[in-house]
Amino acid sequence: MGYRDTMTAMGRRAREAAHLMAKAGATVKEAFLEQTADRILAERDRIAQANARDIDAAEAKGLPKAKVDRLRLTDKVLKEMTDGLRQVARLPDPVGQITSMWTRPNGLRVGRMRIPLGVVGIIYESRPNVTVDAAGLCIKAGNAVILRGGSEAFHSNRCLAQILQESLVETGLPEAAVQVVETTDREAVLELLQLEDYIDVMIPRGGEELIRFVAENARMPVLKHYKGVCHIYVDERVDMDMAERVCLNAKVQRPGVCNAMETLLVHQGVAPVFLPRMAEAFYRHGVELRGCPETCRLVPQCRPATEDDWGAEYLDLILAVKVVPSMDEAIEHITRYGSSHTEAILTEDFHRAMRFIQEVQSSLVLVNASTRFNDGYQLGLGAEIGISTSRLHAFGPMGVEELTTTKFIAFGTGQLRQ
Amino acid sequence: MGYRDTMTAMGRRAREAAHLMAKAGATVKEAFLEQTADRILAERDRIAQANARDIDAAEAKGLPKAKVDRLRLTDKVLKEMTDGLRQVARLPDPVGQITSMWTRPNGLRVGRMRIPLGVVGIIYESRPNVTVDAAGLCIKAGNAVILRGGSEAFHSNRCLAQILQESLVETGLPEAAVQVVETTDREAVLELLQLEDYIDVMIPRGGEELIRFVAENARMPVLKHYKGVCHIYVDERVDMDMAERVCLNAKVQRPGVCNAMETLLVHQGVAPVFLPRMAEAFYRHGVELRGCPETCRLVPQCRPATEDDWGAEYLDLILAVKVVPSMDEAIEHITRYGSSHTEAILTEDFHRAMRFIQEVQSSLVLVNASTRFNDGYQLGLGAEIGISTSRLHAFGPMGVEELTTTKFIAFGTGQLRQ
Predict the structure, then answer these.
(1) How far apart are CA A237 and CA A221, in angstroms?
(2) B306 vs A164: CA distance, rounded Å
(3) Per residue in B178-215, pLDDT tens?
(4) How far apart (Å, rounded) are the C-alpha atoms in residues B339 and B87?
(5) Engineering a disulfide at B161: which of A229, A304, B180, B243 sits with its beta carbon 3.0 to 4.6 angstroms away?
(6) Phi and psi of A123, rounded to 5°?
(7) How confident is the model at residue A185 (pLDDT cuts 50, 70, 90)?
(8) Cβ-contact A112, A402 below 8 angstroms
(9) SS3 B418
(10) ipTM tops 0.90
(11) CB atoms B23 and A358 under 8 Å
């Protein structure tokens, strides 16, 4: 108990910092990002010490090795973090950008200007590099940020936040533009989620349970990313070599991520030729297939799928496979079982490609490319703070622009409303 | 009790209709809007009968005359409704619009395409014309809509919804694209607000109490508009004739609306000359002034303001007036007491105009024009479904584009992620 005052004070400081951040020029923000990168490299030892405390605690608690490894701020992770900061520094400053402007019949010139969102809250799990990545993006977009990381990375996060704050002060930006919740108590998070007057948007990053918890308790808007049940539909008219390469890439290049393919839909016209050879490639890469009856007939090794397989996010070397009589049935299947994340069609047919692009309402719809491209860096946004699978404000990867909004501006010469 | 099933069934029908609506072409949607306008005029008598039941009930309940008048579907109101529908029909179709497209180094062509939001919920009070205005806009943007109007307009809303549904069926669009909650029980609204799987966004329109109720209980995102505490700052270097006209327009042209001026801030350098003449004009128009000590000194008639006057949304012929030593203090006052709705600067000074535009973070910031322009029609959006004073998704007047989102699309030639 007693977190209300601490959290409210934190929110108030963030709001004040946000007012100053909104006025910060592009050069200062760039300097902050470059300086933070330099400082992180210069403070390697300090970071390593803090990180070691988290690692020791995690090992003492008997966390599985994979989880402990995710906490490690190795030289490679530090390099990625600092490269990321410098990349974000070089992105064009979104703040103050006039996205459009037009003149009204009465001569009033009306336009839209990009401004920061204000105060962004980020609640995340495990990996401490998120502290730096997220703070960097938020600052670039002129926001203040309140970060609440996972308890396992507590000391690492605190150390990185201190370095960020030192850079803020040194470049003349408000120290409170980056704040970290210094407790791992869930009560504190609950209080944070009540601060609708001080936090403009909450971005949870982590498992489904965390995201639901935030979505259900937050009083402010939440940008959320539930699961990625991504489909590839292999059309009747397809370049089979290309299809094999793309399907393999979408499933095995990194199976544990949200943009990996989870269900393969194959047109019945091509299934008898395509599925046996595709299955062979999958089996060679250790992928377990779970198929509809027709798939099992064409690929005798294939295990039958149950209703639960459609809609499953395996995040593993498992793939559901279904033969469909038409593209329309493929789209229907996607609409029914998909998660609006990423869907691709592989086809040589122009009209079906255009219809699929038009009719499938996922955050990324691709023609003849791997689902693995649904990622801010890959799509050219420069960086990303998450992938939104709901449609308000942002749908798909969120880059620096998605951390802004637009206000209307109008230049007049004394116009009156009649 | 017992509303859960009805509301869920309604949500499910809306979701199905939304899938079909997303595919509907521009011509069909245009035909629907034109036909609804024709039908409304053809069915004058039927509408008048339904409307009479609401009017009778309102009068029997002893509602004040102003409130009863707001319910009346007069010929003028019908004309405005149908003109509005035809205007929306002629707007460019936002759906399918590709807002930008670029090519990645690997040859992948990536773009953003506008798609409907899905299912929009609208909860509103009193005026039955909102039923038609809101439904028209939602359909234009390819959405399905669930409407819940005020109990006073129950019969009028139901009749208008039936006409909308008849038009939907006649033009081959899904009937469930427009649905009206046929009960005025608040329990039903509460159930509606739980349907996060079926309703993508909720837009409350009405008094502050209604908006807070929706914001606090909704599980889906809410686009909300709290109050409009709009400021005009009259700078030291100003064309006083223009300033007098603009201030008068902003306060008295229609004092009861959210974009009317509520506080006037005047630079001390111009106050001694400007305030006495401005006050005279205000008093001539029946405006009560409540001023800071300096204002009261310059305008002896002026009543002293209390702390509550700063930040008050009078919606009436009352105005708070304050003399400020600088533009920075004006901006500080706005940041502290404003509602992020509409703020204007009146000045001849280029640099201050540009700084004010940049530094004031309201949904519309004007130079040398009346605050009354914060309105979708006035700013050139063609129509509006409300004004958002929070920053997520939309900030300011929301037109047909704000009822859409964008998905990413990508055209490839077999690209794989490395």
Answers:
(1) 44
(2) 43
(3) 999 988 788 999 999 999 999 999 999 988 889 989 98
(4) 31
(5) B180
(6) -115, 120
(7) confident
(8) no
(9) coil
(10) yes
(11) yes
What sign does the dihedral B56-B57-B58-B60 (CA atoms) show? positive
CB atoms < 10 A from the CB of B83, how many? 11
Asked if residue A162 lies in contact with residue A413, where contact means CB atoms within 8 angstroms, the answer is no
A283 dihedral zone (left: phi>0; alpha: psi -120 to 50; beta):
alpha
Domain extents in chain A: 3-223+398-410, 230-378
Question: Is B408's CB within 8 Å of A242's CB?
Answer: no
The second-level CATH assignment, the architecture, of A230-378 is 3-Layer(aba) Sandwich (3.40)
- Residue A11's CB: how many other CB atoms inside 10 A? 23
Chain A residues touching B221 at Cβ < 8 A: 221, 390, 392-393
Q: Which two tokens stand for residue A236?
A: 């009747």
Which residue shows structure tokens 């401004």?
A115
On whether any CB of chain B is under 8 Å from the CB of A302, the answer is no
Q: What is the DSSP letter of B300?
A: T
Closest Cα to residue A400, out of A417, A386, A418, A384?
A384
DSSP result, A13-68: HHHHHHHHHHH--HHHHHHHHHHHHHHHHHTHHHHHHHHHHHHHHHHHTT--HHHH
Residues A223 and A257: beta-carbon distance below 8 Å? no
Q: Taking a C-beta distance cutoff of 8 angstroms, is the pair B260, B230 a contact? A: yes
Which phi and psi angles does A279 have, rounded to 5°?
Answer: -60, -40
User: Letter for the amino acid at A105?
Assistant: P
Q: Cβ distance B407 to B266 under 8 Å?
A: no
Residue for token pair 């062509």: B109
Q: Looking at the complex, does the CB of residue B411 fall below 8 Å from at least one CB of chain A?
A: yes
CB pair distance less than 8 Å for B380 and A23: no
Q: Which residue type is seen at B165?
A: Q
User: Whole-structure pTM over 0.80, yes or no?
Assistant: yes
Please, which residues bridge with residue A178 across strands? Answer: A145
Contact B318, B288 (CB under 8 A): yes
Which of A410, A45, A416, A386 lies closest to A223, judged by CA? Answer: A386
Which residues 6+ apart lie within 8 Å of B375 measured at CB? B259, B384, B387, B397
Of A82-96, A118-132, A168-182, the poorest mean pLDDT is in A118-132
Q: How many residues does chain A have?
A: 418
Q: Are B354 and A113 in contact (CB under 8 A)?
A: no
Quick one: which of A180, A253, A233, A173 has its CA closest to A7? A180
- Parallel/antiparallel/unpaired status of strands A109-116 and A119-124: unpaired
A23 to B397: CB separation less than 8 angstroms, yes or no: no
C-alpha torsion angle, residues B179, B184, B188, B190 (rounded to 10) = 110
- How long, in residues, is chain B? 418
Nearest to A414 among B242, B372, B393 (CB): B242
Tokens of A137: 């993006």
With left for phi above 0 and alpha for psi between -120 and 50, is residue B83 left, alpha or beta?
alpha
**Is pLDDT above 60 for B1?**
no
pLDDT at A1: 54
Closest Cα partner for B219 from B193, B238, B201? B193
pLDDT at residue A283 tops 90: yes
What residues of B are in contact with residue A379 (Cβ under 8 Å)?
104, 110, 408, 410
Closest of A33, A50, A146, A132 to residue A90, by C-alpha: A33
Please identify, in words, the CATH class of the domain defined by A3-223+398-410: alpha beta
Contacts with B340 (C-beta within 8 Å, 6 or more apart), sequence order: B361, B362, B363, B389, B395
Question: B297 to chain A nearest CA, in Å?
Answer: 28
